[in-house]
Amino acid sequence: MYNLKELALMDENGKRSDGRGIDELRSIKITVGVVKNADGSAYIEFGKNKIIVAVYGPREVHPKHMALPDRCVLRCRYHMSPFSTDTRKNPAPSRREVEISKVMRESLEPSLILSDYPRAVIDVFVEVLQADGGSRCAGINAASVALADAGINMRDLVSACAAGRLSENIVLDINDLEDKEGDADMPVAYLPNLEQVTLLQLDGKITTAQFSECLEKAISGCKLVYEIQKEALMKKYFGNELELKEEA
Ligand code: ADP
Protein backbone atom coordinates (compact mmCIF):
# COMPACT_ATOMS: atom_id res chain seq x y z
CA MET A 1 0.00 0.00 0.00
CA TYR A 2 2.81 2.44 0.86
CA ASN A 3 5.01 3.51 -2.03
CA LEU A 4 8.58 3.55 -0.78
CA LYS A 5 9.54 6.19 -3.35
CA GLU A 6 7.49 8.55 -1.22
CA LEU A 7 9.64 7.83 1.82
CA ALA A 8 10.22 11.52 2.52
CA LEU A 9 6.46 11.97 2.86
CA MET A 10 5.56 8.57 4.34
CA ASP A 11 7.68 5.75 5.77
CA GLU A 12 7.20 2.01 5.32
CA ASN A 13 4.95 1.91 8.41
CA GLY A 14 2.58 4.51 7.01
CA LYS A 15 3.91 7.30 9.25
CA ARG A 16 3.99 10.72 7.64
CA SER A 17 6.82 13.30 7.63
CA ASP A 18 5.56 14.82 10.88
CA GLY A 19 4.92 11.44 12.55
CA ARG A 20 1.15 11.39 11.96
CA GLY A 21 -0.86 8.45 10.67
CA ILE A 22 -2.99 8.60 7.52
CA ASP A 23 -6.17 9.69 9.32
CA GLU A 24 -4.63 11.92 11.93
CA LEU A 25 -5.22 15.66 12.28
CA ARG A 26 -2.48 17.99 13.43
CA SER A 27 -3.02 19.30 16.96
CA ILE A 28 -5.57 22.13 17.08
CA LYS A 29 -5.97 24.82 19.73
CA ILE A 30 -8.57 27.58 19.53
CA THR A 31 -8.88 30.54 21.92
CA VAL A 32 -11.94 32.80 21.70
CA GLY A 33 -12.02 36.54 22.39
CA VAL A 34 -8.37 37.55 22.03
CA VAL A 35 -8.77 41.00 20.41
CA LYS A 36 -10.20 43.54 22.84
CA ASN A 37 -11.36 46.10 20.26
CA ALA A 38 -13.10 43.61 17.96
CA ASP A 39 -16.74 42.51 18.26
CA GLY A 40 -15.60 38.92 17.99
CA SER A 41 -12.22 37.23 17.66
CA ALA A 42 -10.35 33.94 17.78
CA TYR A 43 -6.81 32.64 17.67
CA ILE A 44 -6.10 29.25 16.17
CA GLU A 45 -3.05 27.01 16.17
CA PHE A 46 -3.57 24.32 13.55
CA GLY A 47 -0.34 22.36 13.59
CA LYS A 48 2.28 25.04 13.02
CA ASN A 49 -0.23 27.48 11.49
CA LYS A 50 -0.84 30.43 13.80
CA ILE A 51 -3.73 32.67 12.78
CA ILE A 52 -5.64 35.46 14.45
CA VAL A 53 -9.12 36.52 13.27
CA ALA A 54 -10.98 39.70 14.23
CA VAL A 55 -14.62 40.38 13.31
CA TYR A 56 -16.12 43.88 13.25
CA GLY A 57 -19.83 44.52 12.79
CA PRO A 58 -22.57 44.50 11.84
CA ARG A 59 -21.73 48.16 11.26
CA GLU A 60 -22.40 50.96 8.78
CA VAL A 61 -21.02 50.35 5.28
CA HIS A 62 -18.31 52.62 3.87
CA PRO A 63 -18.46 53.46 1.00
CA LYS A 64 -22.23 53.80 1.40
CA HIS A 65 -23.09 52.72 -2.16
CA MET A 66 -21.91 49.20 -1.26
CA ALA A 67 -24.84 48.74 1.13
CA LEU A 68 -27.54 46.24 0.15
CA PRO A 69 -31.20 46.99 0.98
CA ASP A 70 -32.14 43.42 1.94
CA ARG A 71 -29.05 41.93 3.56
CA CYS A 72 -25.70 42.50 5.16
CA VAL A 73 -22.47 42.61 3.16
CA LEU A 74 -19.77 40.19 4.30
CA ARG A 75 -16.18 41.28 3.64
CA CYS A 76 -13.20 39.01 4.25
CA ARG A 77 -9.53 39.86 4.14
CA TYR A 78 -7.00 37.04 4.34
CA HIS A 79 -3.47 38.34 4.82
CA MET A 80 -0.11 36.68 5.46
CA SER A 81 2.28 38.67 7.61
CA PRO A 82 5.77 39.27 6.13
CA PHE A 83 7.25 36.89 8.75
CA SER A 84 4.72 34.09 8.28
CA THR A 85 6.76 32.03 5.80
CA ASP A 86 10.39 30.90 5.43
CA THR A 87 11.21 33.75 3.04
CA ARG A 88 9.96 37.32 3.60
CA LYS A 89 6.46 37.62 2.20
CA ASN A 90 5.70 40.93 0.47
CA PRO A 91 3.06 42.57 2.69
CA ALA A 92 1.10 43.82 -0.34
CA PRO A 93 -1.91 41.58 -1.11
CA SER A 94 -0.95 38.90 -3.63
CA ARG A 95 -3.29 37.27 -6.17
CA ARG A 96 -3.31 34.20 -3.91
CA GLU A 97 -4.49 36.26 -0.93
CA VAL A 98 -7.21 37.93 -3.02
CA GLU A 99 -8.41 34.48 -4.12
CA ILE A 100 -8.34 33.06 -0.60
CA SER A 101 -10.23 36.10 0.75
CA LYS A 102 -12.94 35.41 -1.85
CA VAL A 103 -13.27 31.67 -1.21
CA MET A 104 -13.25 32.30 2.52
CA ARG A 105 -16.17 34.73 2.18
CA GLU A 106 -18.04 32.26 0.00
CA SER A 107 -17.48 29.44 2.47
CA LEU A 108 -18.67 31.50 5.47
CA GLU A 109 -21.65 33.26 3.85
CA PRO A 110 -24.06 30.26 3.79
CA SER A 111 -23.65 29.84 7.56
CA LEU A 112 -24.79 33.40 8.36
CA ILE A 113 -28.31 34.86 8.40
CA LEU A 114 -27.29 38.02 6.60
CA SER A 115 -30.90 39.13 5.95
CA ASP A 116 -31.08 39.98 9.68
CA TYR A 117 -28.76 42.96 9.13
CA PRO A 118 -29.86 44.91 6.03
CA ARG A 119 -27.66 47.85 4.90
CA ALA A 120 -24.84 46.80 7.26
CA VAL A 121 -21.42 45.21 6.78
CA ILE A 122 -19.48 42.57 8.68
CA ASP A 123 -15.71 42.67 8.27
CA VAL A 124 -13.62 39.56 8.89
CA PHE A 125 -9.84 40.09 9.13
CA VAL A 126 -7.74 36.93 8.94
CA GLU A 127 -4.08 37.53 9.78
CA VAL A 128 -1.69 34.63 9.28
CA LEU A 129 1.23 34.93 11.72
CA GLN A 130 2.78 31.60 10.77
CA ALA A 131 1.85 29.42 7.77
CA ASP A 132 2.39 25.70 7.41
CA GLY A 133 -0.01 24.46 4.73
CA GLY A 134 -3.79 24.51 5.14
CA SER A 135 -3.92 28.10 6.30
CA ARG A 136 -7.19 28.78 4.43
CA CYS A 137 -8.91 25.94 6.32
CA ALA A 138 -7.44 27.03 9.64
CA GLY A 139 -8.49 30.63 8.87
CA ILE A 140 -12.07 29.58 8.07
CA ASN A 141 -12.28 27.62 11.34
CA ALA A 142 -11.13 30.59 13.39
CA ALA A 143 -13.30 33.02 11.39
CA SER A 144 -16.46 31.01 12.02
CA VAL A 145 -15.73 30.89 15.75
CA ALA A 146 -14.98 34.65 15.75
CA LEU A 147 -18.31 35.33 13.97
CA ALA A 148 -20.10 33.31 16.65
CA ASP A 149 -18.17 35.26 19.31
CA ALA A 150 -19.41 38.49 17.68
CA GLY A 151 -22.97 37.23 18.19
CA ILE A 152 -23.82 37.14 14.48
CA ASN A 153 -26.99 35.12 13.82
CA MET A 154 -25.95 31.87 12.18
CA ARG A 155 -27.39 28.57 10.99
CA ASP A 156 -24.31 26.52 11.79
CA LEU A 157 -20.58 26.82 12.35
CA VAL A 158 -18.27 26.29 9.37
CA SER A 159 -15.60 23.64 9.89
CA ALA A 160 -12.78 23.18 7.40
CA CYS A 161 -10.11 20.59 6.79
CA ALA A 162 -8.13 19.37 3.80
CA ALA A 163 -7.43 15.85 2.62
CA GLY A 164 -5.02 14.91 -0.14
CA ARG A 165 -3.12 12.26 -2.01
CA LEU A 166 0.42 11.07 -1.32
CA SER A 167 1.08 8.49 -4.01
CA GLU A 168 -1.79 5.92 -3.69
CA ASN A 169 -2.68 7.01 -0.17
CA ILE A 170 -5.47 9.43 0.65
CA VAL A 171 -4.46 11.25 3.83
CA LEU A 172 -6.13 13.70 6.20
CA ASP A 173 -4.96 17.26 6.82
CA ILE A 174 -2.10 18.08 4.43
CA ASN A 175 0.86 19.99 5.92
CA ASP A 176 3.18 22.40 4.09
CA LEU A 177 5.66 19.74 2.89
CA GLU A 178 2.83 17.44 1.75
CA ASP A 179 1.18 20.38 -0.01
CA LYS A 180 4.37 21.13 -1.96
CA GLU A 181 5.68 17.58 -2.58
CA GLY A 182 2.43 15.56 -2.50
CA ASP A 183 0.17 14.70 -5.43
CA ALA A 184 -3.10 16.41 -4.55
CA ASP A 185 -4.58 18.77 -1.96
CA MET A 186 -8.33 19.19 -1.44
CA PRO A 187 -9.44 21.84 1.09
CA VAL A 188 -13.07 21.42 2.16
CA ALA A 189 -15.35 23.56 4.34
CA TYR A 190 -18.52 22.01 5.73
CA LEU A 191 -21.62 22.92 7.72
CA PRO A 192 -21.65 19.94 10.12
CA ASN A 193 -25.31 20.14 11.19
CA LEU A 194 -26.76 21.07 7.79
CA GLU A 195 -24.40 18.59 6.11
CA GLN A 196 -23.52 21.03 3.32
CA VAL A 197 -20.17 21.65 1.67
CA THR A 198 -19.37 25.37 1.28
CA LEU A 199 -15.83 25.09 -0.09
CA LEU A 200 -14.25 22.47 -2.28
CA GLN A 201 -11.00 23.13 -4.09
CA LEU A 202 -8.60 20.68 -5.63
CA ASP A 203 -4.97 21.20 -6.52
CA GLY A 204 -3.43 18.13 -8.21
CA LYS A 205 -4.67 15.04 -9.98
CA ILE A 206 -6.85 12.24 -8.59
CA THR A 207 -9.13 9.57 -10.04
CA THR A 208 -12.91 9.62 -9.55
CA ALA A 209 -12.70 6.93 -6.84
CA GLN A 210 -9.90 8.82 -5.06
CA PHE A 211 -11.98 12.02 -5.30
CA SER A 212 -14.85 10.41 -3.36
CA GLU A 213 -12.48 8.97 -0.76
CA CYS A 214 -10.71 12.31 -0.40
CA LEU A 215 -13.97 14.23 0.03
CA GLU A 216 -15.26 11.74 2.58
CA LYS A 217 -12.00 11.93 4.52
CA ALA A 218 -11.95 15.74 4.48
CA ILE A 219 -15.55 15.82 5.79
CA SER A 220 -14.64 13.42 8.58
CA GLY A 221 -11.82 15.85 9.48
CA CYS A 222 -14.28 18.78 9.45
CA LYS A 223 -16.46 16.91 11.96
CA LEU A 224 -13.48 16.49 14.30
CA VAL A 225 -12.63 20.19 13.95
CA TYR A 226 -16.26 21.09 14.74
CA GLU A 227 -15.99 19.51 18.19
CA ILE A 228 -12.89 21.60 18.95
CA GLN A 229 -14.62 24.80 17.75
CA LYS A 230 -17.64 24.10 19.96
CA GLU A 231 -15.41 23.36 22.94
CA ALA A 232 -13.54 26.66 22.48
CA LEU A 233 -16.81 28.63 22.42
CA MET A 234 -18.20 26.71 25.40
CA LYS A 235 -15.00 27.42 27.31
CA LYS A 236 -15.34 31.17 26.80
CA TYR A 237 -19.07 31.43 27.50
CA PHE A 238 -19.67 28.63 30.00
CA GLY A 239 -16.12 28.14 31.28
CA ASN A 240 -16.90 28.48 35.00
CA GLU A 241 -20.07 26.41 34.79
CA LEU A 242 -18.23 23.64 32.94
CA GLU A 243 -15.48 23.58 35.56
CA LEU A 244 -18.05 23.45 38.38
CA LYS A 245 -19.88 20.58 36.64
CA GLU A 246 -16.62 18.67 36.24
CA GLU A 247 -15.79 19.20 39.91
CA ALA A 248 -19.27 18.04 41.06
P1 ADP B 1 -3.04 26.92 2.16
O1 ADP B 1 -2.20 27.61 3.20
O2 ADP B 1 -4.49 27.19 2.34
O3 ADP B 1 -2.72 25.45 2.03
P2 ADP B 1 -1.64 27.18 -0.38
O4 ADP B 1 -1.88 25.76 -0.78
O5 ADP B 1 -1.72 28.23 -1.43
O6 ADP B 1 -2.68 27.62 0.76
O7 ADP B 1 -0.23 27.33 0.33
C1 ADP B 1 0.37 26.29 1.00
C2 ADP B 1 1.46 26.80 1.89
O8 ADP B 1 2.51 27.37 1.12
C3 ADP B 1 1.06 27.93 2.85
O9 ADP B 1 0.37 27.47 4.00
C4 ADP B 1 2.40 28.50 3.20
O10 ADP B 1 3.05 27.71 4.21
C5 ADP B 1 3.17 28.37 1.89
N1 ADP B 1 3.13 29.67 1.16
C6 ADP B 1 2.08 30.26 0.58
N2 ADP B 1 2.42 31.44 0.03
C7 ADP B 1 3.73 31.61 0.29
C8 ADP B 1 4.68 32.64 -0.01
N3 ADP B 1 4.34 33.74 -0.67
N4 ADP B 1 5.96 32.46 0.41
C9 ADP B 1 6.33 31.34 1.07
N5 ADP B 1 5.48 30.35 1.40
C10 ADP B 1 4.20 30.47 1.02
Automatic annotation (TrEMBL):
Keyword check for Nucleus: no
CDD domains tied to this protein: RNase_PH_archRRP41 (cd11366)
Domain Exoribonuclease phosphorolytic per the UniProt entry, residue ranges: 24-152, 156-220
InterPro entries linked to this entry: ExoRNase_PH_dom1 (IPR001247), ExoRNase_PH_dom2 (IPR015847), ExoRNase_PH_dom2_sf (IPR036345), PNPase/RNase_PH_dom_sf (IPR027408), Ribosomal_Su5_D2-typ_SF (IPR020568), RNase_PH (IPR050080), Rrp41 (IPR011807)
Single GO term (MF): RNA binding
Cellular component annotations (GO), alphabetically ordered: cytoplasmic exosome (RNase complex)
Top enzyme category: hydrolase
Subcellular location field: Cytoplasm
Major localization class: cytoplasm
Keyword annotations: Cytoplasm, Exonuclease, Exosome, Hydrolase, Nuclease
GO biological process terms held by the UniProt record: gene expression; nuclear-transcribed mRNA catabolic process; rRNA catabolic process
Pfam families: RNase_PH, RNase_PH_C
EC number annotated for this UniProt entry: 3.1.13.-
Family the entry assigns: Belongs to the RNase PH family. Rrp41 subfamily.
Stated role: Catalytic component of the exosome, which is a complex involved in RNA degradation. Has 3'->5' exoribonuclease activity. Can also synthesize heteropolymeric RNA-tails.
Subunit relationships: Component of the archaeal exosome complex. Forms a hexameric ring-like arrangement composed of 3 Rrp41-Rrp42 heterodimers. The hexameric ring associates with a trimer of Rrp4 and/or Csl4 subunits.
Protein name: Exosome complex component Rrp41
Classification lineage: Archaea, Nitrososphaerota, Nitrososphaeria, Nitrososphaerales, Nitrososphaeraceae
